[in-house]
Write the structure tokens for this entry.
Amino acid sequence: EAGVAQSPRYKIIEKRQSVAFWCNPISGHATLYWYQQILGQGPKLLIQFQNNGVVDDSQLPKDRFSAERLKGVDSTLKIQPAKLEDSAVYLCASSLLILAVGGTDTQYFGPGTRLTVL
Amino acid sequence: AQKVTQAQTEISVVEKEDVTLDCVYETRDTTYYLFWYKQPPSGELVFLIRRNSFDEQNEISGRYSWNFQKSTSSFNFTITASQVVDSAVYFCALSEPRGSNYKLTFGKGTLLTVNP
């Protein structure tokens, strides 16, 4: 079974430029997550989708970050304009079950996109 | 608020040594889930184990074992007879189900280096 796919793997841009990341989750996984991992820290959730609806985007800097999951499969995360502090690894994860109250599910992660903002 | 503490920032051992990675968590809920993930140099987070708060049985999987103690809010991870391929950053994470929000709260990770 194919894992979570992400592209590009690396991206270098200058501040104030725009950038977009793409994620293809594991086939059949209803829930998709985007995380930001700054060097030396654990991943931090940016946004969570269930099918094509947003479940949680409370930690997404909405003035510059946006994400969408059209058709409930692939997802893109965009930063516009980028700042120096956006330099990080952006991880996409997916989980199988549609979430229900009182339950949880295991998230499987992609290889990430390493963004460097100069 | 939930919180995960991995006090060991870096650990270095020699191959075949046993090593324990510590994880302490904070939560107000009685229902929660604990995870361990491995992040090798390639960057991908690899799922290792999930435990729910009602199952305190220790688990062993090959050279890996996990010790869950609710009394001390700890979920420690032991690698027996470590190997060079075990070198990675290991993350402990906590999930509390709240409606449809299941975000993981990660610790800062422990960098394990296994030297030949």
